[in-house]
Amino acid sequence: MELITTTGALDAFCARARAFDFVTVDTEFLRETTYWPKLCLLQAATPDEAILVDPLADGLSLHPFFELLANKRIVKVFHAARQDIEIFVKLTGKVPQNIFDTQIAASVCGFGDSVSYDNLVRSVTGVELDKSSRFTDWSHRPLTEKQRLYALADVTHLRDIYIKLLEQVTAQHRWDWVEDELEILRSIDTYVVQPENAWERLKSKLSRPRDLAALRALAAWRERRAQDGDQPRSRVLKDDALIELAMQRPVTAEAFDKLRAVQRGYGRSSAAAEVIGLLKAVEALPKAELPPAIERYRGPSPKGAVGDLVRVLLKAVSEEHGVASRILATSDDIDALVLDDEADVPALRGWRRKLFGEKALAIKHGKIGLVATRKGVREIEIKD
């Protein structure tokens, strides 16, 4: 099997690939100690050949492959594409054109929610993959024969899966379902975290305006520091530490040492000095510049009986139409629509609303009920 280590050889492959309608793509990378994923191996396959590319080889430029990714005519086929695409966005500043994610397509064709590649290979081709090389050190050279075979399998079987799913999506008239999900992958905002928006990733119950202002400022500071130092966010400060800092807002080294979520002695570090300056600025903010307090919902809990009924409905609709429940609605979507008939969630828009959302609202308002039959759960109209 060929391991490409020169720009010329890669350029020649990309020239041959342009003769086809699609190319399958996968990557191997490391990320345990960095903010940005480190690309260690690139795999690609056309209908008649498959290659491995060594991005760590001296003098090799990936520019020919980046041009292939930018070619709008050729479909770039991935499985669970988000992390692979993030790598290419980091290297090129752009999202690959004309992408297809087999995990998304599989989820709307009855293969289940977030189906793994090896399970999909088994279902479509009957082949049992050896995944023992999954967590090996892909930066180490030379690569073993076992590693190469594992890496190639990630793009060779993907060809058969793509062709099979293409047929199913077309036959079941579900292209609009797939397109909705692909739009998320096509947006560069999916991969580039702006520091000022980093607080949105945190799960906290903070509601007081000054606490929220501190959390937003701290999250932005951590994101910048992680990006600039190319280190994981948790290496800067863990989530629970950010939340405790936002609540306690220590402004001295001694106050830092009283916090449980921050290691002792951290208050005398240069990072803590930056945090103290930031928190002092938050304390000085006038009330008019603070974010609004979060209003807590005081009605029936969405985790109660109504929410439970909607979740049963979701499972029933998912099974009836052979589509993964996560594609129809998330748990957060259900909570939102139980609280608000006009909640801004995917479950209440487009094809999802027709398939599930309208029924969910009908259950909420007592217009339909659910009954168990030998064939499964079905809806019945409730008459006044």
TrEMBL record:
GO terms for molecular function: 3'-5' exonuclease activity; nucleic acid binding; nucleotide binding; ribonuclease D activity. It comes from the Bacteria. Its cofactor is a divalent metal cation. InterPro entries: 3'-5'_exonuclease_dom (IPR002562), HRDC-like_sf (IPR010997), HRDC_dom (IPR002121), HRDC_dom_sf (IPR044876), RNase_D (IPR006292), RNase_D-like (IPR051086), RNaseH-like_sf (IPR012337), RNaseH_sf (IPR036397). Pfam families: DNA_pol_A_exo1, HRDC. Keywords: Cytoplasm, Exonuclease, Hydrolase, Nuclease, tRNA processing. Signal peptide: none annotated. Residues 208-289 form the HRDC domain. Its EC number is 3.1.13.5. Belongs to the RNase D family. This is Ribonuclease D. It comes from Devosia nanyangense. The gene is rnd.
